[in-house]
Amino acid sequence: MGLKLVYFSYPYSDNPRQRTEEIKTFVQLVLARHNNIVPVVPHLMFDAIYNFPEGYSHPEFSVMELEVISRCDFVAYDPNEVSSGVRWEVAFAKWLGKPVLTFQEVLAHGVEG
Fold first, then answer.
1. C-alpha torsion 55→50→88→95, nearest 10
2. Which has more confidence, 19 or 77?
3. What distance in Å separates the CA atoms of residue 80 and residue 102, rounded to the nearest whole number?
4. What is the chain's mean pLDDT, rounded?
5. Is domain 4-109 given the CATH code 3.40.50.450 in the classification?
6. Stretch 28-52: mean pLDDT
7. Rounded CA gap, 6 and 60, in Å?
8. 4, 21, 46, 53 alpha-carbon torsion, rounded to 10°
9. Are the beta carbons of 78 and 102 closer than 8 angstroms?
10. Among the ranges given (8-22, 71-85, 92-106), the one the predictor scored with the smallest mean pLDDT
11. Would the N or C end of the chain have less CB density within 10 A of its end CB?
């Protein structure tokens, strides 16, 4: 079973600190169940580097997100937690032909392929 890069798409800008903690907790739960996933969490990647200004808007980072998604094997999202940013990321993934899974699918079954 090979390792798979999974991009976890999740809302951010409405409450950055809370949303980052939520996705971190979810990914830790996934990793406790599945050992072939290398998580790619943009909240953690970009927050560690950039100081997002007040009024940050998602399209400013869309080129970087597209590049990261292009290198991943899968994109996962929660259909119950969809923002404009999540819509962009899922659309990018589909445009690139990447498999898109729900968080529930990843948690229950992991990733294959």
1. 160
2. 77
3. 10
4. 89
5. yes
6. 87
7. 22
8. 160
9. yes
10. 8-22
11. C
- Cα(107)–Cα(29) distance, integer angstroms: 8
Among residues 1, 5, 3, which one has the least CA distance to residue 93?
Answer: 5
Token pair 């229950």 is at which residue?
108
pLDDT of residue 109: 96
For the record, the structure tokens of 71 come out as 């290198």
Q: Tell me: pLDDT of 25 over 70.
A: yes
Segments making up each domain of the chain, as ranges: 4-109
Q: Per the structure block, which two tokens stand in for 105?
A: 């699918």
* Closest of 49, 81, 83, 66 to residue 7, by C-alpha: 66
Q: Find residue 76's DSSP bridge partners.
A: 8, 101
Q: Is 39 helix (H, G, I), strand (E, B) or coil?
A: strand
pLDDT surpassing 90 at residue 113: no
